[in-house]
Amino acid sequence: MLPVERELAALKFMDALSARLKEVREPHKALRHALRDTCEFFDASRGCIATLSAGRSTAKLLFMLPKEADWDLAVLTRYIRHTHPPFGRDMLIGSVRRRGAAWGALALVAPGREFDRDDRRLIARIAELLTGAVHRIDGDRLLGVRDRIDRKIMEQI
Question: Residue 155 gets which letter from DSSP?
């Protein structure tokens, strides 16, 4: 694909993903949509979303495509912790943040294909888009909880 056509396809993909994520109200649904759509866009045979909770030594796989795929949790854990592990050129990883801290990774593998610098930049942009969607969903949820608490207090007064 020519660079201009490739950039146009990437922009169309980002726009469509952004529109889809705006409609989602649950973080897990946003993660699943982003994983599925990103795997399809990059024509990756495997993809996953991994998260690292506070106090855990290794990352946990939340979603995988296909569901029985093998993943190197050590690489994903190190990536989430920003220690820049070595991984193959057939793999893309993007950092997903939550509540202002490192939280997860969106990873794709396409055996036999070498991803280039533009692909790595695009996965970083996709991860930022996903981070923003999760942040928005968390904020909306927090506002809803605060609203319910306020109503309860007002009822009791």
Answer: H
